[in-house]
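Long-time lurker, finally posting.

We've been working with Ribosyldihydronicotinamide dehydrogenase [quinone] (Myiagra hebetior) and I want a structural starting point before designing mutants. I don't trust myself to interpret raw outputs, so I'm hoping someone here can both generate the structure tokens and explain anything notable. Sequence follows.
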Amino acid sequence: PGKKVLIVYAHQEPKSFNGSLLKIAVEELTKQGCSVTVSDLYAMQFEPRATRNDIVGHLHNPEAFNYGVETWEAYKRGGLSKDLVEEQKKVQEADLLIFQFPLFWFSMPAILKGWMDRVLVQGFAYDLSKAYDGGLLQDKLSLFSFTTGGGQEMYSNEGIGGDIRYVLWPMQHGIMHFCGVKVLNPHICYAPERVSEEKRKEMLTAWTQRLKTLWKEEPIDCSPEWYFK
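Top reply, 14 upvotes:
Generated this for you. Predicted structure of Ribosyldihydronicotinamide dehydrogenase [quinone]:
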């Protein structure tokens, strides 16, 4: 109880299956006494492009623009754009980050990737000497909850898509673990558009049930073995 949760949500349609998963998470976690904040990226018209508009005031090196260097310098002097500062504040306050989205091309939608690119800047989320277990966002948990177009058998070692964990490597390991965030097991709803209404209801119930005991879960072992063994 009293935990803070940020849900970063990337779907265009509130009546979608992803929309239902979001609604359940907000209701269930609020019922537990958590305070829940949602960043609804499409509704916010969140800008996914990393540009010089992200820096307010002077550039560190106006001769040759380097986004990584400029945002790092801007972060240190409090010169990042307002939308970034707001998202960073939400991340800073959260005990748990839930990312809710449909899988696009073995990855997250561009708007969500843009959130990662722009919000998790050097100095805020990591430093070159402080990454992975030493990342700057320690003591936080993350959970990737997403839907797929293909069925579960497609995302297996024997399937055409390969093990779903390969897909999770860049997201869970390359972003979250890099920033020091602990990672809970992903929540994957396979092919909700292709299954019966009854099966969809079962998927929603399973999500509700999982959320009830979420805080008792142990994070995954953040090592390459988890993904590639």
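Before you design anything, note these points.
The mean pLDDT is 96.
The domain at 4-228 is CATH 3.40.50.360 (Rossmann fold).
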